Amino acid sequence: MPQPQNIIGIVYDFDKTLSPHSMHDDTVLPFLGRTPADFWEETDRLVDDTTYEAELAWMRLLLEHEGFRNLSNQDLRHMGMSLVFYPGVPQVFDELSALVDQPKYREHGVTVEHYIITSGLREIIEGSNIRPFVKAIFGSEFAEDAAGKLYFPKRAISHTQKTQYLFRVNKGYMDLRKDVNDHVPHEEHRIPFANMVYIGDGPTDVPCFAVMTQMEGHTLAVYDPEEHHSFQKCMDLRRADRVEEIAPANYQRGTHLWRLLEYRILEIADDIVERRKGNPESNIIPAPRF
């Protein structure tokens, strides 16, 4: 069925985007008595010396620790309350959503939804105080054994694999059992890419930035104002035309980042109002099965 396409989707990376740290640094690593520097150096050695994918490398290192194997996903969720966020998070989610609470937008049912796509652990964010504000969280996951303990990677989302979740947001395919490769006519996409904004922090977000640009979506890179290297990464992205704008990662009302998001959301909302017309009926064509 044709979709009203009156939803604005704001999609966030997590590490170094909503938080100044890797989520592991605030949660799992202190629990295991590991220092972030040593853990990530060991991860890099696996990647460099044995060509491990980065996500599988750190998942392997965690599972090699008996203390981690004795945890459950519920334990990971409890750790979520230890996450550290940039200023303005999580208040910014409600503040941005409230921007379209105006008669001219309410008349057309315009709303804002927030999504997180991360290579980090989904369960940790699920247990944080961000969870009530977001429509969905996509991230790497561990399966549990019969005793309810973590024992094997269930899902490892690499930087390139993150792009498939952009299409899930675009099509409204929150159920991971649905094949994201199903052909869905444009008028049946729940959130057109033109209604989406992706926010990341560096080169690991380039695949998502590229998809967003190609599909006429919107891009924004944030940097830690305390780190020159973080700023330099964003400048490199801007010079290479990977992103439309860059800003310090301060989400508080009135900051440069907040104003950029306000501007983009209202611009998209105005476009939605202008193009609100009926869409023709059409059918979904399932992806081939092999």
* Mean pLDDT across every amino acid position: 94
Strand order of the largest sheet: 4-3-2-1-5-6-7
Low-confidence stretches: 279-283
Whole-angstrom Rg: 20 Å
Q: What is the structural class?
A: alpha/beta
Give the beta-strand count.
Answer: 7
The fraction of residues assigned to DSSP E strands is: 15-25%
Order of helices and strands: EHHHHHHHHEHEEHEHEHEH
Spatial separation of the terminal alpha carbons: 27 Å
Describe this structure in words.
The protein has 290 residues and is α/β, with parallel strands linked by helices. Helices cover 39% and strands 16% of the residues. The protein has 13 helices and 7 strands. It has helices spanning 23-26, 28-32, 36-50, 54-63, 66-69, 73-79, 91-97, 103-106, 122-126, 162-171, 206-214, 228-239, 256-275; strands at residues 7-12, 111-121, 136-144, 150-155, 196-200, 218-223, 245-248. It has a 7-stranded mixed beta sheet with strand order 4-3-2-1-5-6-7, with helices on both faces. Helix 3 crosses helix 4 (54-63).
